[in-house]
Amino acid sequence: APAAPAASSPSRTLRDVLAKEERRRIVDALRRSAGNQTHAAALLGMPRRTLVKRLREYGIPRGQVVPDADS
After folding, report:
1. N or C: which end of the chain has fewer CB within 10 A?
2. Secondary structure string (H, E, C) spanning the chain
3. Cα(14)–Cα(9) distance, rounded to whole angstroms?
4. Binning pLDDT at 50, 70 and 90, where does residue 12 land?
5. For residue 3, what pLDDT is reported?
């Protein structure tokens, strides 16, 4: 029987990787739109309400452009 795939480390789950990438893209869109959430949401292809929800989820302050988590 084939060996079971190795468990990924808890800090690198698919969910973590996707969340980090989504946060990076949100911050980039906010930078590109000079903090304008309506424009950033349009760049991301999501409703503004969804963007506001994500800002809360990722702890990104509204009305400010923040540095990327990797910076």
Report:
1. N
2. CCCCCCCCCHHHCHHHHHHHHHHHHHHHHHHHCCCCHHHHHHHHCCCHHHHHHHHHHHCCCCCCCCCCCCC
3. 10
4. confident
5. 60
Q: Which amino acid is at 8?
A: S
Measured distance CA(62)–CA(42) in Å, rounded: 16
Q: Contact, 26 vs 45, CB < 8 A?
A: no
pLDDT the model gives residue 71: 43
Where do we find the tokens 């946060």?
23
- pLDDT tens digits for range 40-63: 999 999 999 999 999 999 999 987
> What are the residues whose beta carbons fall under 8 Å from the beta carbon of 54, sequence distance 6 or more?
22, 23, 26, 46, 60
- Which residue do the tokens 């969910």 mark? 15
